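MOLECULE: protein
FOLLOWS: sequence and fold
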Amino acid sequence: MEKEKEQRIARKSLYIMNAFLLSIHACLLALFAAFHINVMMYFNIASVLFYALSFLVLKKGRITSYIFTTYVEILAHMFLAVLCLGWACDFQLYFIGSIAIVFYADYFSVRLGQVHIQGAVLSIGSAVCYLIDFALTRQGWSIYALDENLVLVVKVVNAIVVFAFCTLFFRMLAHSAIYYEVELTQQANYDKLTKLANRRHMLDYLEGAYAEGKLKEEWVAIMDIDNFKMINDKYGHNCGDYVLETIAAIILRYSGSFKTCRWGGEEFLVQGSCAEGKPDYRLLENIRREVEQHEFTYEQQKLRLTITIGVAKYEDGMSIDSWIDVADKKLYIGKKSGKNRLVA
């Protein structure tokens, strides 16, 4: 599901890029037609058709083909535009703008599982076209001669479009990079199955609190699902996953007053603040009782499950490991003395 979500975002971004390029070429078509610059007018008719059909290419998932043909179209279009209208109109700025497209498309090509298109190499192609156009038109030569006022207007319009062009693509690239960074952080810190924090994230939090001296009136509890191996062996691991998800959801309903994580396997660790110098035994007992009373139903099989809880208050001089180890030993006592109980 997460991979599909990533691909939807990447594909949507490429649709936006294509729509932007289509609108630019439609505007250029109108401009060239208005001033009877026929070579560029006919080229832009072909370009508009190309970008209209490109939506079908993207829909079919042919991302690499789309990127390369788009790159070639932009370079050919701008190379010819400079020859037709001269260096003074600043169509060569689009060669620089094309670099934004190249790296933007390269990023999303990889995200969609396509070929890495080597954006740096393609950027060299843009630079080469830029320099060739400069060499051919540096003396002011062009196929079409435009009025100076019109040249100024075209120059300003091209500058605005290229700035907007680069701003749009770099903004979308930055937005996507931030999104994926958040997703990676989420995946690194949270358990995919239960949606709880994972062991590493909880330890990072506890070590930070320990370093700041904030654990003096705190407690931890380790909760373990009784006879969980039997559930997996008898009903399968999918049933085990269902049990873990359900119990995690029960714990989360009480999590307003404590932090919780999946500690490992069928164990959960919760951490909270003492009330009147004592751990919140009533809250933990409520969780234990709710699990005990909950009717688990998996593929028409009704199951009854229990949890055992070991609780430890933080004492001066304890390390994080020794503190958790005390709770773990209390849990062990609970397991040995009949399970389905809270041991403090």
User: Anything to note?
Assistant: The first helix runs from residue 2 to 34.
